[in-house]
Amino acid sequence: MRADDVLGLRPCDRVLVVAPHPDDETIGPGGTVARLAATGIEVHVLCVTVRRGRMYGGASDPAVREQEFAKACAALGVRNQVVAWIDETGLEDVSARQRDLVDLIERHEEVSLAAVDPVALIIPAAGGYHQDHQAVYRAGFAAARVHPAGLKPTPRIVLGYRGVEDRWSAVAEPWWLHVDTSDQWPAKEEALRAYSTQMRASGPRSIDQVERIDAAAGASIDTRYAESFVPYRLAY
Amino acid sequence: MRADDVLGLRPCDRVLVVAPHPDDETIGPGGTVARLAATGIEVHVLCVTVRRGRMYGGASDPAVREQEFAKACAALGVRNQVVAWIDETGLEDVSARQRDLVDLIERHEEVSLAAVDPVALIIPAAGGYHQDHQAVYRAGFAAARVHPAGLKPTPRIVLGYRGVEDRWSAVAEPWWLHVDTSDQWPAKEEALRAYSTQMRASGPRSIDQVERIDAAAGASIDTRYAESFVPYRLAY
Amino acid sequence: MRADDVLGLRPCDRVLVVAPHPDDETIGPGGTVARLAATGIEVHVLCVTVRRGRMYGGASDPAVREQEFAKACAALGVRNQVVAWIDETGLEDVSARQRDLVDLIERHEEVSLAAVDPVALIIPAAGGYHQDHQAVYRAGFAAARVHPAGLKPTPRIVLGYRGVEDRWSAVAEPWWLHVDTSDQWPAKEEALRAYSTQMRASGPRSIDQVERIDAAAGASIDTRYAESFVPYRLAY
Amino acid sequence: MRADDVLGLRPCDRVLVVAPHPDDETIGPGGTVARLAATGIEVHVLCVTVRRGRMYGGASDPAVREQEFAKACAALGVRNQVVAWIDETGLEDVSARQRDLVDLIERHEEVSLAAVDPVALIIPAAGGYHQDHQAVYRAGFAAARVHPAGLKPTPRIVLGYRGVEDRWSAVAEPWWLHVDTSDQWPAKEEALRAYSTQMRASGPRSIDQVERIDAAAGASIDTRYAESFVPYRLAY
Amino acid sequence: MRADDVLGLRPCDRVLVVAPHPDDETIGPGGTVARLAATGIEVHVLCVTVRRGRMYGGASDPAVREQEFAKACAALGVRNQVVAWIDETGLEDVSARQRDLVDLIERHEEVSLAAVDPVALIIPAAGGYHQDHQAVYRAGFAAARVHPAGLKPTPRIVLGYRGVEDRWSAVAEPWWLHVDTSDQWPAKEEALRAYSTQMRASGPRSIDQVERIDAAAGASIDTRYAESFVPYRLAY
Amino acid sequence: MRADDVLGLRPCDRVLVVAPHPDDETIGPGGTVARLAATGIEVHVLCVTVRRGRMYGGASDPAVREQEFAKACAALGVRNQVVAWIDETGLEDVSARQRDLVDLIERHEEVSLAAVDPVALIIPAAGGYHQDHQAVYRAGFAAARVHPAGLKPTPRIVLGYRGVEDRWSAVAEPWWLHVDTSDQWPAKEEALRAYSTQMRASGPRSIDQVERIDAAAGASIDTRYAESFVPYRLAY
């Protein structure tokens, strides 16, 4: 159940992944990112925000979070990555800035639809329980609407990826696209380990549980590991 | 995330599981059956049919299939089990006998709603791709409708379980009920091994892939293994 | 169709109900609260907000609303209740404070997941038309995500209840869990009467219409009255 | 919340109701039928089948069932009604005769789309648990497809009604059309009483429970009673 | 497939259309507005907002936008229209003002539920990708809840219309109500042309693509053109 | 919005299309078939049945129907096509032969999964109202389940296509995959014309209405024409 290329993407094609926070790009589509990058496709990652503050199980320091993010992206072979909004107060509510989020994904000067002009846009799927994931999904979906040729880039492919704890969802979505990531599990595991302040020894944020999810997705297509996506748009 | 008892079921309560073919009662809810049985709950299994004939990867002999079924049920601690319809020609299409299926589940003399009067009825979930699973789901659902007290038994609880390859489904169902089966995996594995003519070394019908599914379900509730169900009715 | 205990809950177990405004805890799950309380289960109610201001059909005075709330909770047998946010200006838009709502439900010092450590969390269901109900649903759902054992309390059971006018909903939800509240109707009616500034003589906010809804739910399970819930998580 | 006419239907317009068995036309849309008939609209009822045989709680004699059907239709003001298939053996499975059902609804010589040429077709809704209801729904839906003008009648309006126990459904449908039947409850009750072999003193088939459902539907639109429908097609 | 009147609406009945921005009332339900107006029904349009600022493909000047809006409404035969919020800074995020939106639709002094007391309320459908459309849908839905007779107007009919690019939606809604607008296409085209700063020569905002959508909707009911709606409430 | 190749399919890849009756392969996915064939991909078409008999608007003669089918397939560039079941009596009900249908799609000796071993399987989508389309959808879906490598062919890609009148559906499916067929419209039109006994001058079975549907699908991705599919499985 493995093709030479994913969805017909070719070397030199460009892909944009949007992550609400550092680590979402790895936990959900990390193996797919690594597989695309390994075949010469340029993957760019726009991370929306990190905040400074107290977390359950530790503290969040933006500088540390950005280092982890860079290290993880390097492990996956990402071409370029950026964290757009640094929330030094820890009090921002991203989910109340819907318009700004659309603008960010459309026009961030370094990593955005305008800057990258990607064939594929990969965003959080609709069913995530986290308010930031929902807001980024909505904004990414809006940003991906079809524009007349020449006016603004429109990605031909739009996919939704799983979040860390998205088995906890009230929305049953069609996870119909599967990417064999058996060969990329080591790279994904390395990227996960880069997030030493985020991952836990057990529970939903543990490498063990991410591995179980990818192994079960692999069972869908009879491979060792896979990642599943919701295929919101595929235009050929 | 583990309770003393499942859904408030108590020792001496009775549960009826309906399986389209031998092995469905194990692959889907086998660990839950074993856990219920271990706490003194009577579990009865009504298997609808086995057929004689050529299969991909072998042949199906009803006598052998019934032996496997008995052995698996013993491993799980089932109180009583029966195969209702032996199809010696191998040509029956169960999915065209909807009314007979409803009658079977309502009134089979040995294992049925009338014979067992169960608190809980456990049937295949709606989304299975196999025509027999769909037919048994529909018939079980119809049989479980509410009757006036005293006229006919009505199970207070109705659950849908996963089939062997039900990651291949066009219906996204709410798998909202999870049973921790960590301690029952050995019993489930033994029951799976009893099906030597049905299980395969690899692919969807392998023990490895059933284990992956149960491990991923466990990740939903932070346990080693779990089985997930669609909770069609819970009346208290 | 009545069990000795609801979902296996036992005396001394704790339950947390979250209500957007005073009266939601009564109109939706009031009979269930009364039944749980009557069997020795501790029920705690977190009411998010009351606002001062003009209402259709009257005025809202926070002090009066809190008195009504206390009186209704007493009628239902609630152990402890609190109103978290008093909006003296009447201008707050709760639905724009998603992050704060999650924090509130997780960590309010007196009544919250952290303070109560409940087995079951009962929140508004997803399909309510009111923006505050939707916001509290989303926040409650997010707060109920699974945490590693020991880090933060995770309720094993999460249920969604009906709002006052939730027959007006564009979302068709699976109301699959039913609780027989025939014996608790008098307590629920008394609690409804406590809300003299909120209930009306006719229309959706009348006792007559709440009674009709509970009588129709009772018809689902052949009892005099019942309350129906969406069973988002049931872990055993 | 009451209009002069239902959906713009006018005196002399014709309506076709399809009932799997005698009593379905009354339990579901009986009040609406009575209201339409009272304003001069011709309502025709095609009942698919009665069978001879043992029933839970009694026996079914086709002649008696047809008498009951005629009496109920008279109480509702139906212009013309017919039972199409008499199953003297009691062994027919209607759900296995999908093509014949479509032909029946399209072309029965006395009461059908061809014979009546109705503006509105009223069929069981999709979510009924009973195999016959599901089959009649599917057949009615197929029969109602759009035909070129002049070739075959196409009803402009297609509605789905509730079955007797359709609170027991795994399909959450949008019951968005409500008809105020407050003034028609007496006629509906009289028609229900005509079914002396079918109705029960308690339980889902009791007048009490039908009344509770209609009272709850009334609560949706602030009337004493109402009937709710799924509006599959409304063409103007 | 054409009736004399739409949904039974009669001359002198009043209808309220809510548009997030100028042109939404035309692109979605413009032909239906024209058909209703042509039969003597009063149609009132509440446009929520225009903003000053840079747009892709041009600039937005509130005064120009209001002129276009007035011209389009005149072409459709609208009785009265208003733009409620002028955003001179271009920085407002309507989607973060949920409560204000509900108040606006309920109580705007000139065009609102209170001011117009309409039989039918026509709002954007739920599935639009644009954050403002989603917010206006939610607010309109909340404003349309049922009130006791005499307290506040409740529209008997609530419909959802398509937005300009709503083929790009992750929500599959039931577009079950169709209005034959074959005779109104010229008026709709004239109204579209009035929006010279908004419409484009090609792409989703071109007259050509709006025409294709209406022609495909017409194919649903075998007419030249039609507009399709989601029928959220129909009470008779 | 056009890629060099569809979903990464390459010259010499094989595709299997299953059509309930002759013309379904053209009306739904005809342009896509033509585009695939034009790039060197082998397309095989399995048509399930033709029946002899009276039709609305004419008569059905199997020999004529097969000639039309062959002519249409030639226009689209199909490599090989077959009609499996000739129903000389006109009385067969395909929808009651679910098991036989699965066997047919798995093992027909000339055109089937076993005979063709395709990368992609293209079947009717789930939501068709016609009982034969539903039966072929279910059988095709079942036949496409994942098998262990080497035992039986498993198509990596499974797509659902539209039927002739599938705007008449009670199931809202996600039509998320779009294929630009602008250059293939002439071939599709030629193939449609080959069905002189099936196509009509007006109404749903007219070339005009098929063209409107494809033009509206094109509007989804800003092309002149397109065909939309439900992407049930995409494995890479």
Provide a concise account of the structure shown.
Chain A is α/β, with parallel strands linked by helices and 236 residues long. Chain A has helices spanning 24-27, 30-38, 62-76, 98-107, 113-116, 131-143, 185-194, 207-221; strands at 14-19, 42-51, 53-55, 58-60, 80-87, 120-124, 157-161, 177-180, 226-235.
List keywords for this structure.
7-stranded mixed beta sheet, Rossmann fold, 9 strands, 23% strand, 236 residues, alpha/beta, homohexamer, two-stranded antiparallel sheet, 8 helices
Describe this structure in words.
- The structure is a homohexamer of 236-residue chains.
- In chain A, strands 5-2-1-6-7-9-8 form a seven-stranded mixed β-sheet, with helices on both faces.
- In chain A, helix 3 runs antiparallel to helix 7 (185-194) and helix 4 packs across helix 6.
- Chain A has helices spanning 24-27, 30-38, 62-76, 98-107, 113-116, 131-143, 185-194, 207-221; strands at 14-19, 42-51, 53-55, 58-60, 80-87, 120-124, 157-161, 177-180, 226-235.
- Chain A contains eight helices and nine strands.
- The first copy, chain A, has one domain (14-234): 3-Layer(aba) Sandwich (Rossmann fold), CATH 3.40.50.10320.
- With 236 residues, chain A is an alpha/beta fold.
- The model of chain A has no long low-confidence stretch (mean pLDDT 94).
- In chain A, strand 6 (120-124), helix 6 and strand 7 (157-161) form a beta-alpha-beta unit.
- Chain A binds chain F through residues 1-9, 146-149, 154, 156, 174, 176-180, 220-222, 231-236, and chain F through 1-9, 146-149, 154, 156, 174, 176-180, 220-222, 231-236.
